[in-house]
Each structure stands twice: as C-alpha cells, then as structure tokens.
Design brief:
little secondary structure, 5-stranded mixed β-sheet, 4 helices, elongated, 5 strands, 8% strand
Length: 450
C-alpha cells in the first residue's frame, strides 16, 4: 500500500494518521493546550513542552525523557557524547556534544563553536535569540527576550538588586552567587574559567612580559598596557573609567558630589580625596585633615605609618617633616578643630592667592595660626615671608595671631619637651585672649625660640 504523502508543495514527508499533512505542517494529533500548534506526543494529548510524551524518571523532574531512555538530557538521558569521560549529551545526528564538536556548527569561517538554536551561527556571531531592545545586538538570556544588560535571564534574589543571577544560584556575583574564589577566606567570585578572583590571579591576564594584572574586556592587555575601553578625547591614551567614555583626567568615572567640585570620587564613596572620599587612614580618619590610606603602607597614610611604626623598614625611606608632624600630633591630642597644612585660597578675582599654614583654627573672627619653623626657615626668602602676611590678609580680612615655633636646637638649647610645653601654654593663652576679645590688633606675632 503506497505511503500517503504530505500535500504541502515540495514536501516529501509522509502524512500522519488520518490527516493529509506531515507533523511539521500540522498533521497528526495536535496538543490540546490553547493556542499551541505543536504535535501531541505518543499516546498523550500534549506536546513535549506542555508535558506530553514519556517523562523523566528522576523524582520531581518534569522534563521529557529522551529517545529510548527514561531520563531527560540533564539527568543523562538520550545519546551521550562519545568522548572519554564526557557526560554531556550528543547533539543532533552526531555522536559528540557541542563542546567536542557535535551538532550544527557556526557558519562563520574558522569558527569552531556550535550554531545556536535554529540559526546557523554561534551566539558570538549573532546566532540564537537576540535581545528585543532596539539596536541591541546581544543574545537574549534563557526564556526571556532580553539580554543580561537589559534585564533578561534570571535575576538576583537580593532585595532591590537588579543584577543577573550567576550560574545555577539565585544571586549575582556581588551577593555571593556563582563560583567563588578558592583562596582561603576570600569571598569574591571566581573569574572566567579559573577558580580564583582577579585579585588572586584569576581570569585572563595581561600578556605583557612580567605583568600580573588582569586583561581588560575582550583585549589581552591590562588597562595600563592599553587594554579595555580607551578615553575618547583626541590623542589621549588612557583608559576610559567605569561606564563612561573618558578617563578620570577628562571627566570620566564617578565625580565628587560636593557642589562645584569637578574631582573624581574615590573608591566606593561619592567624594574626592580632598572632601573626605576614599579609604581613609585609620590613625587620622577622625582628624579635620585626614588623609587617604595607602595599600603600600597597610592602609595608613605615609605620615601616620612612619609615626605609628617607626621601626618598620618602610618607615626608614619615608621622608616627612618630622618635627612638624610631632607638633601636629601634639596639637591634635590637646585641642580640637585645628586644620593642618591645607591651602587657603582667594577666589573670584584677578589676584588669587594660595598660601599654606602649618596649623590653623578659626575662632570667632580670628585665625590662630601656628607655624613650625623647622631649621629656622633659613632657606625661606624673608621678603616673601613679609608678602605672605599681606596675602593672608587678602584671604581672611579678620584678625590674625601667629605663633612662630622653632623646635630645633640651633638657637636655643632648651629641651624639646620644655619647648612643647611652652607651645601648649602659649596656644591656651591665645585662645583665652581671643575668647575674651582681648586681641585688639589685626596681627599679633609670637616667636618661640626663633
């Protein structure tokens, strides 16, 4: 008896059952789910997607059993890859999995990846389902119609987190999802196909000789050697910062949140270094002029590291104004509110000035200024020192009291402890006079051991 053929033009498949079409063209028994046009499987009245046909025998698994086996692909059903020790499923009519070259391959020249879905290209070359966002060329994730960047795929289960969940977990990388770094006590995510985070050497590394930094984006170099996205400013060779197209110097990256400040925000803070951003030194973080910590000095600023760990080998190569720092630490111990070694500015005029004072505090309309004259300031231009007072009057038109303190023994043979006690006594006397409004002159200068 001749086999009945499908009546669709140019179709050579056999018609199914009492219909005159093949399965592909709608013949045979159809799935009873509303609006489903797929074929019902076996003796059931539903298609595979809706639960028809033979099911996987694994407990609680709802997937379809594959071929003559009683398990789904995920549980080992169907034809397996013929490569030794490979447990993946063989693809299509081949005897290998996608990773070992089975199934339909990408049609791009020299590409060895598998073609995705019903397309003839791999994901990287545009195959598979694409993101539905206008002008987005990325691949849609999972059963969604959007890429990861546009909200597709499984999302992190943490409250208010919009990132994508990693691997088979329900959290993003930042919240502990995906493969973790194998280093003891490290909680960061492992990078790429490695078992370590970037800080511990995971992920793709820069290919420059002796460079241990991480390669950026799809390049094979780190940021310092030209990898990753570059600044869009003409002739600028620096790397673009964050999600912007410019380097820090040209305004890229996160900016300081202080009004009218154009500097770059530091670390995870929203302020620049000058406004208190970045990781602060643990020794001076509560001071008005706290400084940023440095990895080189175990999170301390160089000045504090030298003071706290004077016997450390690293302290021996740090240059500091040792005596000025000694005075600074004493003032911080005895008084509140002093600002150290920060410039004063005049602005909005053609005669701008920028002058530094070692230690200063504004009390009422008087600035109490202490200058630590190391080496008697012998190398300073005396005429410039006089002009300096005039410049400071341009910055603050109120009253000034200067205490010029020489900590050296080049003039006086007084013991340093006695000198410091005299300094504290003089500062207290000046503060009392200011609070009692006894300082009537615009400028008073007290010289201690100068």
């Amino acid at each position: 008896m001749p086999i009945k053929k499908c009546n669709e033009p140019d179709c050579k498949a056999g018609a199914i059952g009492k219909t005159d079409k093949c399965i592909a063209h709608g013949g045979g028994k159809r799935c009873i789910e509303p609006d489903c046009k797929a074929s019902a499987i076996g003796k059931t009245d539903k298609c595979v997607a809706h639960g028809g046909g033979k099911r996987c025998s694994e407990p609680d698994c709802k997937a379809s059993a594959i071929g003559k086996t009683d398990k789904c692909v995920a549980h080992g059903g169907g034809k397996r890859c013929s490569e030794p020790d490979c447990k993946a499923s063989a693809q299509g009519k081949t005897d290998k999995c996608v990773a070992h070259g089975g199934g339909k391959r990408c049609s791009e020249p020299d590409c060895k990846k598998g073609a995705e879905g019903k397309t003839d290209k791999c994901v990287a070359h545009g195959g598979g389902k694409r993101c539905s966002e206008p002008d987005c060329k990325a691949s849609a994730q999972g059963k969604t119609d959007k890429c990861v960047a546009h909200g597709g795929g499984k999302r992190c289960s943490e409250l208010d987190c919009k990132s994508s969940a990693r691997d088979k977990s329900d959290k993003c990388k930042a919240h502990g999802g995906g493969k973790r770094c194998s280093e003891p006590d490290c909680k960061k995510g492992a990078e790429g196909k490695t078992d370590k985070c970037i800080a511990h050497g995971g992920g793709k590394r820069c290919n420059e000789p002796d460079c241990k930094a991480s390669a950026r984006d799809k390049t094979d170099k780190c940021k310092a050697h030209g990898g990753g996205k570059r600044c869009s400013e003409p002739d600028c060779k620096k790397g673009a910062e964050g999600k912007t197209d410019k380097c820090v110097a040209h305004g890229g990256g996160k900016r300081c949140s202080e009004p009218d400040c154009k500097a770059s925000a530091q670390g995870k803070t929203d302020k620049c270094i000058a406004h208190g951003g970045g990781k602060r030194c643990p020794n001076c973080k509560d001071w008005p002029d706290s400084r940023c910590g440095c990895i080189k000095y175990d999170g301390y600023c160089a000045t504090c590291f030298k003071h706290v760990f004077p016997n450390d080998e690293r302290s021996k190569v740090i240059y500091t104004h040792t005596k000025e720092i000694m005075v600074r630490n004493l003032i911080n111990e005895k008084f509140d509110g002093f600002i150290h070694d920060k410039p004063l500015y005049t602005g909005d005029c053609d005669c701008s000035h920028r002058r530094r004072i070692d230690h200063r505090k504004l009390i009422g309309n008087t600035i109490l200024a202490i200058e630590t004259d190391e080496f008697g300031h012998k190398s300073y231009d005396q005429h410039d020192e006089e002009i300096r007072y005039d410049d400071l009057f341009m910055i603050h038109s109120g009253k000034w009291i200067f205490i010029r303190f020489n900590p050296d023994d080049n003039i006086s043979k007084v013991d340093i402890d006695d000198k410091l006690n005299k300094l504290i006594e003089t500062i207290n006397d000046c503060i009392d006079r200011i609070n009692n409004e006894e300082n009537t002159e615009l400028l008073e200068i007290y010289k201690l051991y100068c």
